[in-house]
Design brief:
Elements lengths: L1 H34 L1 E3 L2 H26 L3 H26 L5 E3 L5 H33 L6 H24 L8 E5 L5 E7 L5 E8 L5 H12 L4 E2 L1 E3 L5 H13 L14 E2 L1 E5 L6 H12 L3 E5 L4 E4 L2 E7 L17 E6 L2 E5 L9 H7 L8 E3 L11 H7 L3 E4 L12 H9 L3 E4 H4 L1 E6 L4 E6 L2
Parallel strand pairs: 5-7, 6-8, 7-9, 9-10, 14-15, 15-16, 16-17
Antiparallel strand pairs: 1-2, 3-4, 3-18, 4-5, 11-12, 12-13, 13-14, 18-19
Helix pairs in contact: 1-2, 2-3, 4-5, 6-7, 9-10
């Protein structure tokens, strides 16, 4: 009796584990679609959680009914529910202390989700046919004198291995594909946030901030990176120290661990290198960013005209500011970092908030080039004080991206800028109208998509 009790207990544990595993396998695509990551230990946690769900539901319902007749009894019963839920929370917090408790995958596309479930159905059908075949073979063996036990064990091992390999194949359908260079202009309200992802998944951000969206880092920039299966920003450029260009990056720095982030994904976005303009003197905002980066173990670099970042087949060249420029009091726009991106036959220009007075740095560089620009990130959110006629007529951008908030108080983008771009035949995309804008290219052709929730 004692032995059978232990066996029944172990069988119950195994059954709970299999139920939990089945739920996890079934729900992985849905969890990834909305949350982009999988809690690794949830299968084990559910072994404890699932049996208690009926207790929570029953006592919760009884507590509500009893409270109509005798409130203290209802309070006592709902207290049981409260402590069970507290127990759930403690278990989850304990799991956070374990290594690799979260696996970041990114948001799967609908085609990948369809293939995942289709493959799952085919695997279940194959298992069913396999078991039917094994039953038939078992009947034949039982009618003979010898029963090949070893063959049966090997057969089970083989089928388990096949199921495991097929499941890994199913998971591959859910992982976002990164085979091209992608430039994404996020819909961050009145501000700038550009994410560049190389074909090798190197991540570069140019600015990240908003003056109209609260906690733009937590609710716009960080979720986007997770949705792409990315958590490390190799280089974070801040073109200048206006809050609508840096406060989202500041949020990322603040949530990082002191001393640097090592190992894999821990639920946090990580910056490895911070890049600021190389000026003669800095105000307290630059100093705050610089000091915080050092505390968090982030390397700080300074870019000026001629500085270059070369990564795989892509280069970023700084066209402005001049090294040791003096920062104008109360106006950081004129010290903006201007970056020129070259990737095979494709190129793009990011001008920060640079205004017309200093656009000669750009025109001087491109006056010696006969090639027109593929993509222009329009300066200063489409302000009439930037993107002057001389620069636009010279660059003739095929595509122009404008990042600004809907119905913003500044009137961005201004009519004059839109007319300058239209006159050279540029295709204009605005985050205030189309939402998030993504430009994907293989270095020759480009595809543009926009998405608005």
């Amino acid at each position: 009796k004692k032995e059978s009790t232990i066996l029944r207990f172990l069988h119950g544990i195994l059954e709970s584990f299999m139920i939990s595993l089945s739920i996890q396998v079934l729900s992985i695509p849905i969890i990834l679609f909305f949350f982009y990551e999988i809690p690794l230990y949830s299968v084990i946690l559910n072994i404890v959680v699932l049996p208690l769900v009926s207790i929570v539901a029953a006592f919760g319902l009884i507590a509500v009914l009893v409270s109509f007749f005798f409130l203290p009894a209802g309070i006592f019963l709902i207290g049981i529910v409260y402590y069970v839920l507290q127990f759930y929370e403690k278990l989850c917090q304990m799991s956070f202390l374990l290594p690799h408790y979260l696996i970041l995958n990114g948001r799967p596309n609908q085609g990948g989700m369809f293939l995942y479930y289709l493959a799952g159905i085919l695997i279940l059908w194959k298992i069913y046919k396999w078991k039917e075949q094994n039953k038939s073979q078992k009947r034949k063996r039982e009618s003979t004198k010898f029963s090949p036990i070893i063959q049966s064990i090997e057969s089970k091992k083989g089928y388990r291995m096949m199921v495991s390999l097929c499941f890994l194949m199913m998971l591959s359908f859910l992982h976002p594909s990164h085979s091209t260079l992608a430039i994404t202009c996020l819909d961050i309200g009145q501000g700038d946030s550009i994410v560049i992802r190389s074909p090798q998944s190197t991540v570069i951000t140019i600015d990240g901030g908003s003056s109209s969206v609260s906690k733009a880092g937590e609710y716009r920039l960080m979720p986007y990176l997770r949705s792409q299966g990315l958590y490390r920003i190799q280089y974070a450029f801040i073109t200048h120290a206006d809050s609508d260009h840096y406060n989202a990056i500041l949020e990322i720095l603040q949530q990082m661990k002191d001393g640097g982030e090592k190992g894999g994904y821990h639920g946090r976005i990580v910056i490895e290198n911070l890049v600021l303009p190389k000026l003669k003197k800095y105000d307290e905002i630059y100093e705050e960013l610089w000091n915080l980066a050092k505390v968090k173990g982030v390397k700080v670099h300074f870019f000026s005209k001629g500085s270059q970042l070369a990564l795989e087949d892509m280069t970023l060249t700084c066209l402005h500011p001049e090294e040791g420029e003096t920062m104008e009091e109360g106006n950081t726009n004129q010290n903006s970092i201007v970056l020129y991106l070259a990737f095979h036959e494709f190129d793009a220009l990011f001008t920060g908030d640079l205004e017309q007075e200093n656009e000669s740095y750009i025109t001087d560089y491109f006056s010696m080039r006969s090639k027109e620009i593929d993509v222009l990130k329009v300066g200063h959110h489409g302000s009439k004080n930037a993107s002057g006629k001389g620069m636009i007529d010279l660059l003739k951008p095929a595509v122009s991206l404008i990042s600004c908030g809907k119905d913003n108080s500044y009137g961005h983008p201004h009519k004059e800028v839109l007319e300058r771009l239209q006159n050279v035949g540029s295709e204009i995309y605005q985050t205030s109208i189309g939402g998030r804008i993504m430009v994907e290219t293989d270095g020759k052709q480009m595809k543009i998509t926009s998405w608005k929730p």
